Every structure is written in structure tokens, then in C-alpha cells.
Amino acid sequence: MLAMDYRGPYRVRAAEKAEPKIEHPNDAIVRVTRSCICGSDLHLYHGLVPDTRVGMTFGHEFCGIVEEVGPSVQNLKKGDKVLVPFNIFCGTCYFCKKELFSNCHNTNPSATAVGGIFGYSHTTGGYDGGQAELVRVPMADVGPTVLPPDMDEDDAVLLTDAFPTGYQAAEMGGIREGDTVVVFGAGPVGIFAAKSAWLMGAGRVIVVDHVEYRLEFVRNFAQCEIVNFKEVDDMAIHIKKMTDWLGADVCIDAVGAEATGNALQHLTGVKLKLQAGAATVLHWCINSVRKGGTVSIVGVYGPTFNMVPIGNVVNKGLTLRANQASVKRHLPRLIEHIQAGRIKPSEVITHRFPLEAVADAYHIFSSKLDNCIKPVLLPAMH
């Protein structure tokens, strides 16, 4: 089969690989019909996530058709159209019972933090991902969700990560009616976080980025105010000026490890890798939110150390909430929002590439060329 093949930082290609096989009675094999490249895949592509091994196939956002199921799979059958959450989870451990599916204790047993994730290095279990024609899906009775008959596949593939992650970012902010919410990052997750903030009753939504075409996109998609941080001297003071000198009620970090905007953070976190990514946006969130406010973090940082102003958190009485999204928990509500016409996730898709052009797709997305917001990979048959 054809699959994305990682050869080292900034080097990916489409290559022939062995087809996956059923390895456990609860596995399924899914023939991929849509697979996205996620902003967090770029952290892998740029060599910022430990233990990303040559030969790995990335891709944690995909949907497809069930090709084969293991003998103990009861909830799926050959021919079912499914979306597959990026979390690999067992559904029965201590954390899964609390619906913390991203922290499953059984699918990444060598880690004490995150659970299993498709195509996201050996720090999340070493599972090959869905930027391929076929993918092995473990725990197939609990993860994959059969698509509603009226669900567009382009909308479905964005329910595997980007939309639920943006939604959980807003949810973790504990938004109350009328709140001012600042979202840092106008990539797909930030765009969905801004839209979700309105769904939760925000009175004002501000999105911060430095790429003009992304800011223009989020302003149109999420009807929000925008700030280009390159035009601002001090982010915290600017947000305070916009909010009667109080600060925002909720700040959301939808950027993570590769933030620009602070030369020292970028040097130590991205270039020299002395910390686990540049914590620029964490500083902005902590310093821009009001006293007693909430900071919600969904931007990806590597383990385990970052330079973070924890004293400001203490003295301001802030609440910090963070996690990888537990996709399955959000699906019923998000499907309802789509079916009710409140949001059409597929509107963020700007580029489609055949799977064999995966190297070009990564380059264009990584370099922010051609006004690319969200790229989708299509196997040859589609």
C-alpha cells in the first residue's frame, strides 16, 4: 500500500509499505478515504517531538471504510463508514471510565501522561497513522464511530481531532454568558475554538495571530475581532487596553511548541531545544487574562520542561486547564451542531492533495504557502 513515510526532520515521502494486519482480536483494518495534516503533525515534521522514528507513518485525523474486523469486534462490520478519533483508548480503565479518553492507561503503558495516539511518535505508543491507504485501528469496538447517513465525509474527518479539540479548548475555559475570550492561534484548532466560544455564550471573541490570511479567514468564519501580534508592542497590555484594563475572562493557547513572537523563547524552545517548545503563548495567556480568570491549553508541547511564569498564576489566582481532547465524549453534541446547521467544519479545508503528493502537502502547510488553512490527503481511489 502507499503511505506517508517519515525520513527525518523536514523529510517525508510517499512510499510503498506492507499492508497492516489484524494483530489482536479487537482490531479493525480501515481503508482511508480522507486524512488530514494537523498543525501538531508539523511539530513531528520539524523534529520537535522526542522518539519520532524514521519509517513511521503520521496521521491522527482520518475517516474511511471498514475493510476487516477481528473476531471479538461487535460494534463494526465490513463496509461501515467510520470516523476514527485520534485517541486510541480501551474504554474500561480508570481514566476511560472518567471519559478522559486521551489519558487511557492501557494503550500507552510506558507513559504516565498521554494515552495512545495514531501516528504521533513512540511517546504516544508508536502506532502508525492514517496518512496511508490502510490503517490498523486497535480497540475498534470503542474508538471508531459509524457516520450518520447524512454526514459529509469532509465534515466527518474534522470531527476526528480539529473541531473537538477547539471545542474542548472552549469548554475547559468554563465560558460564562457574556465572557471575553481571547484565542491565541488562528490555525484550524484556534478557528474552531473561536467558533465554539460563541456556541458557549461568549460575549466577545478575539483571535491573535500574525499571518494575515489566517486572521482574515477566522474573522469571516467565526465573526470575531482579530489582532496581529506583530503590530503590538506588549500583548498583555494590548489585551488589557481592549478590556477596560481588566484582562480577558478566558485565554486559550491553541499554538503550542512552535510559537513565534519572543526571540529568547523561540531560540531556547525551537532552535536549541533547551526547553520543550517556546512557551511564548503561555506567557501571553497568563499575563493577558484577568485576575481569577481561566487559561485553557490545547497547544502541543513536548515533555517535560518549559519556562512558565508560575508566580503570576499564583498571584493572579488563575485556573489552568489543559489536555488532549477526549474526542468521543464530544461527538454527540458536535454532530448535533453540524446537523442543526450551526457550523460546517469542512469550510476550513482549503487544499486537497493526492496521497502521493504528501511531501508537497507538508511543505505548503508548514511554510504557510498559498493561503493554506487545512490540507486533506486523498488516497488514489478517491
Automatic annotation (TrEMBL):
<dbReference type="InterPro" id="IPR013154">
    <property type="entry name" value="ADH-like_N"/>
</dbReference>
<keyword id="KW-0479">Metal-binding</keyword>
<dbReference type="Pfam" id="PF00107">
    <property type="entry name" value="ADH_zinc_N"/>
</dbReference>
<dbReference type="InterPro" id="IPR011032">
    <property type="entry name" value="GroES-like_sf"/>
</dbReference>
<feature type="domain" description="Alcohol dehydrogenase-like N-terminal">
    <location>
        <begin position="25"/>
        <end position="142"/>
    </location>
</feature>
<protein>
    <submittedName>
        <fullName>Glutathione-dependent formaldehyde dehydrogenase</fullName>
    </submittedName>
</protein>
<dbReference type="InterPro" id="IPR013149">
    <property type="entry name" value="ADH-like_C"/>
</dbReference>
<comment type="similarity">
    <text>Belongs to the zinc-containing alcohol dehydrogenase family.</text>
</comment>
<keyword id="KW-0560">Oxidoreductase</keyword>
<keyword id="KW-0862">Zinc</keyword>
<dbReference type="InterPro" id="IPR002328">
    <property type="entry name" value="ADH_Zn_CS"/>
</dbReference>
<dbReference type="Pfam" id="PF08240">
    <property type="entry name" value="ADH_N"/>
</dbReference>
<feature type="domain" description="Alcohol dehydrogenase-like C-terminal">
    <location>
        <begin position="188"/>
        <end position="267"/>
    </location>
</feature>
<dbReference type="InterPro" id="IPR036291">
    <property type="entry name" value="NAD(P)-bd_dom_sf"/>
</dbReference>
